[in-house]
Amino acid sequence: MDSTGPSGRQVSLPSAINLSTFTAARMKEIKAMRKALSENAGTKMAFQKLPKHMRRRAMSHVVKRLPRRLREIHFNQMKKSGLPPKTSKLSRKHRRFHMVEKWGFKLPKQPCDKSFRACYRATTQHCLVQDLSYIRCIEIAGAYPSIISKLAKVTDSKIGLTFSATCFCEVYLNVGYGSGWDVIVPSVWSQAFFMSFVMWGGRVGGLRETESIAFEKSQCDLLYPDTTAGEQEEHVLTDTYRDTFFRLPPNKRTNFNKFAIASPFSFNWKLLISDWSGQHCSTFFVLRDRLVLKEIQKFLTGGVAAPLLPDNCLIPVKLLTEKKGVCSRFGLICTIEEGTSRDEIVEPMHKDLLAQKRKALRQEHKSLLQKLRRRRKRCRKLKKPSSPTDIDILTTYRHKMRSLWLPEPKTIRYSCIRPVIGFIKHGAFSFTFGQSKGLGYIAGSALTSLTAKNKVLIRNPNSQKYKAAVLDIVVE
C-alpha cells in the first residue's frame, strides 16, 4: 500500500503487520505508558479519583478503606507529605442500608449514601442489583391442562398475558426501562454472587428503588388499592403520616382545616365514589381492562364519546404539571372550567371552626392534671399510697384532640372551591420526563365532568395554590 510521506514522496507501507513483533518493538513505550497511568499525574489524591459513592470519610488517613490498586499510590503520597497513613484494623460494624420491618421481614429500604439519582442512572445505563429473596416461590404440580384451566380463573386476557400465553414463550424479556434478569441461586451462594455483582459495578438498591422504577414506568401501584394487601399498605401509610404529624408541636402543624383539605393523610376512595355516584359505596375496584382504558384516553384527547363505566370504579391516571412545582402524595385532583385562567386559582383561607374547641379541651385537661398533681402531693404528705395516674384519661384526651385536628371527612368532592375527582398516590420529580409527575386514581363517575378534557388542576395538601396539569390514562 502506497502513501504520501511528509516530504511529498510516495512511501510503501506493508498491507499487514505481525502483532507480536510490533508489540515487542514498542514494549518500552507500553511500559512507560502503564507506569504513567498508574501513578498520580495530576494534583488529586488517590482517593479523589474514586467515584463519589465509593469514597469513605476516613480514606485520607486509613489506607485499608481504599481499593487495593490505589493503596500503594496513596501510601507514597502520604509519605511525601510527612504524614504516614494509619493501618489500624477496621470495624466491620457498618451499615449499608436503612432497614424497615415489612411483610414479616427486615428489608432494606434505601442505601445509606446519597444514591437516588445514581440508582436511576444505574437502571437506565448500567446495572441495579436488588435482593428479592423475601419473595416466595410457589411450585404447582399436576397435569398441564388441569393447571392451566384452574389458573385461567385468576387471569384475564383483557388485562395482560395469561398463564396459557406465557407457557408458549420460552423466554419473555421486557425490553425497556426497568427490564432485567432474575438470578436464582442457592442461599449459601447468595452473598458471594451479590458481592461479585457489586464489585463489577452493580449499584445496590432497596424498596425505595423498586418504587422508583415503578414510578418512572408510570405504574400506579405495586399493590392496588382494591386488594387486601393494598388496603393494608394504605392503612400503614396513613398511620405513619399521622404519627409524624402529631409528633410536631401544635404551632408547627399544618392547619388542614384552614386549607380545606378534608383527607390529608388518607385516600378515602369510598367517600369519593359515593360523592360522585350519589349512592353509598361499600366496595370498589380499579379499572384494568386495556380496551376500555384506551377508549377513555381517546375521549380525553377528543373525537369519541365517553364509554359507559360502573359507578364504583377507579381509573388509573398520570399527571404532568404544565409549569414548575412538584406533585406530592395525598394531593387533590380537581376539575377545571374551560376558559378559566389557570394562573390565578388559589384556595381562600377558611375559618377553623374547631380551634375554640381545641383550646377549651386543652384548658380542661390542664386543670384536670393540676388536680391529680395536688392529690398525689397530699398522699405523699399523709404517707398514703397514691393511685397511679389514670391512663384512660390521657388516652381519651389524645383521641379527642386528634379528632379535632383531623376530623372525619363528610365529603371529598365538595371539600374545596374546585370539585375533587381523585387523589395523587405517588408524586415526585420524574427523571424520565424531566419534570414533576404524579400517579393516582380518579372516580369513574367523574369522567364526564372533565369539561376541559385532559386538563385538570392539582393541589398539594400543604398549599393553597392550584397547578395546571395534563391528565393521561395509565394503560399498563
Record the SSE blueprint.
Elements: E1 2-4, E2 10-12, H1 19-25, H2 27-38, H3 68-80, E3 97-102, E4 105-111, H4 116-125, E5 128-130, H5 144-151, H6 163-167, H7 190-199, E6 203-205, H8 207-216, H9 228-246, H10 256-259, H11 269-277, E7 285-286, H12 290-301, E8 313-321, E9 332-334, H13 355-381, H14 391-405, E10 420-430, E11 435-443, E12 455-459, E13 467-473
Parallel strand pairs: 5-6, 7-8
Antiparallel strand pairs: 1-2, 3-4, 8-11, 8-13, 9-10, 9-12, 10-11, 12-13
Helix pairs in contact: 13-14
Could you characterize what this model shows?
- The protein is α+β, with helices and mostly antiparallel strands.
- It has four domains: 45-81, no CATH class; 98-217, no CATH class; 247-348 and 410-473, Aminomethyltransferase beta-barrel domains (Elongation Factor Tu (Ef-tu), domain 3, Beta Barrel); 353-405.
- The protein has 14 helices and 13 strands.
- The protein has helices spanning 19-25, 27-38, 68-80, 116-125, 144-151, 163-167, 190-199, 207-216, 228-246, 256-259, 269-277, 290-301, 355-381, 391-405, and strands spanning 2-4, 10-12, 97-102, 105-111, 128-130, 203-205, 285-286, 313-321, 332-334, 420-430, 435-443, 455-459, 467-473.
- The strands form four sheets. A six-stranded antiparallel barrel has the order 8-11-10-9-12-13. It has a two-stranded antiparallel sheet with strand order 1-2. It has a two-stranded antiparallel ribbon with strand order 3-4.
- Helix 13 runs antiparallel to helix 14.
- Pfam families: POP1_C, POP1_N, POPLD.
- Keywords: Coiled coil, Nucleus, tRNA processing.
- Residues 313-475 form the POP1 C-terminal domain.
- It is found in: Nucleus.
